[in-house]
Amino acid sequence: MIIWLNGTHGVGKTTTSSLVQRLLPESRVLDAEKVGEVLMDIKPGLPATDNFQHWQPWRPLVVETARRVLEYTGGRLVMPMTVLVESYWREISAGLSEHGIAIQHFVLHAEQDTLRERIQNDEDLGPSSFRFAYLEAYAEAARSWLHNDAEVIDTTHLTAEQSAEQIVASVLGRRE
Hints:
By secondary structure, this protein is α/β, with parallel strands linked by helices. The chain has eight helices and five strands.
């Protein structure tokens, strides 16, 4: 099984994924961004883009990497990764489904003011123009398809620990 944590950059996916992993036995975190980093390291580089998700190989490589890791380890993968392009999400989720891999899709959501404050005050990365640039794309995806396709966890007034607990409760079929 894959527990996919979606949501805009800066909402807390990476932090929450670590906490979810600690709460779920036999789970591991697989950050699909690492697949993008592999592609970015190809020399000479691939065609210019502002986001490695636009490179066609990224999506099937994410599917294949997750499949192979699950085949090798069993258990669950917690995957924190922003995917705001619906066709990209459909390609990834269909690819995983074709291999019989169940996906529980969550969106970590926060109100725009909260997101801006979190990004501005991030102690690890500092203010990030990259993260700010995706706020509108996230809002559009949330309105048009993303919130209808996942279980939304509104983190506006939650700690990362509380968000992780809600996710784990959902995965284990408990209501909190």
